[in-house]
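Hello forum,

I keep getting stuck at the same step: I have a sequence, I want structure tokens, and every attempt I make locally crashes halfway through. Rather than fight my setup again tonight, could one of you with a working pipeline run this one for me? It's a single chain of 146 residues.
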Amino acid sequence: MTTTGHDLPRLLGNARRWFDDALTAAMRGTGERPVSPTQFGLFAVLDDEGTTVSELARRMGVTRQTVHQAVHGLVDAGLLEQAPDPGSARQRLIRRTPEGERVHRRALLVLERLERTLAERIGADAVESLRSALEAPWGAPPRDGA
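Reply #2:
Ran it on my machine without issues. Output:
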């Protein structure tokens, strides 16, 4: 196998775009309303019982404003709802609507199919090695750039 010589962050970004593009195409192909990669990412980190905007932003590594925009688009599409947070009078929980649950389950099935496709293309062992490397504890990022 040949390598491109590209740095790892670029390669990880390319891999993420491969999944995003394939998921978007598959969902459109089934007649689902298109959502952005940020909105897909929000679904991926959302707890079943609901999650606050602040926690979603932390998990996604984006600003609260970015999450607010994604949430509002998904609320308008009928895929998410906002509910009072029983633990805080000031915060609201973001959670899937029944339609959002249906779409989420469909997207998970598509992602499973995409992983099988990737395993057919690069080998099941390579996919398992990739998964193991990405799930391994990397520790906190170094602060000195090294």
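The mean pLDDT is 91. If your local run keeps crashing, start a new thread with the error log.
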